[in-house]
Design brief:
The chain is an alpha+beta fold and 232 residues long. The protein contains four helices and eleven strands.
Amino acid sequence: MSRLAVCLISLTFLLLGSSCVPSIHGIATEGNAIFRPELVGSWVSDDNESAWIFESNNELGYLLTLETPDGTDGSFYAALVELEGELFLDLFPSDNDPNWPIVRFYGLHFMPLHTFLHVELLEDGLALRMMDPSWMDAWIEQNPGAVAHEKESMTVLTASTSELQALLPQWLNSEPIPDAGFMGGEAAAFTEPVMLTPGEIQPREEMEPEEFMELEDMELEDNPEAAPSTAP
């Protein structure tokens, strides 16, 4: 088994369930990274479940902090790239993130990877779309050999930077693949957009035990079949 395959096994538990397609190589270079000052700031989702906070990194890129109502979820280096008229973010884990265990021997067995998002800068907000791993697996099956990758429980792209720069706009404009998505539905290369507007995330309100019990009783009244059964 290759060293990359061993790394993939470890990474499976980190990335499983997230809507992204990880890549060994990025799409940003010193020559093609651009800086848009309007991206700097705090952007929050409509459901208050995530905040994307972009800071300038010497106007060569961005430092991105992801936050949830429960606290910081991760820190990344972010680079903005324009490919065939479309904007993409290249994210890479920051070595300043206290959550990254690279300082310990255990952490040396994990490999930081790139992920890519399609970006739309709107007048009143920001739209982010992530790559769909289900679509990627189906596309690779339909187009064997079209992109270099490794798969050990999950797919990791190993294509070069130039190859990825050419493929991302093609994938963005690709047709959905039937029967490749969740519950047998169709899958698109990029997910539905996450809409963000300027603002800050609000702390999650703590629920008192009495309130939780009342909520649970209400749910059981609405759905009696969900009540636990007792042995006769």
